[in-house]
Amino acid sequence: MTPHVRDPRAGYDQSLEALREAKRLGKTEREGKLMTKSSIMLGLGEEMEEVLETMRDLRNVGVDILTLGQYLRPSEKHLGVVEWVEEDFFQELKRKGEDMGFEYVVSGRMVRSSYKAGEFYRQWKEKEVKKSRSVNY
What we know:
The chain is mainly alpha-helical.
């Protein structure tokens, strides 16, 4: 679906490579773990297997956080909504994402790309600090 829904200057492979590189640089130039995040907007005619393939590709490049939401047409100039995705579909994708190993998956009609990102980061950071304090030597 990428050629149909995305600007041709931002290809699918290019996006995956950027995420992979961010993760690689985060490991070599920063202390601690660099979290990476991506988002998928649904409702443009995608099939379940296409979404799952994209989710697997994101995990394969090390993405930690995934948000899935309903595409909403911002203006008449933009692509129209093909379908309103059922909440059960979003919840199934959330479960599958967690099973794939994403650290944080938020999935629902009103979820947007930065959905509660700051809140999640604070919770994750607190958990990491607690883990580091509880290491037994």
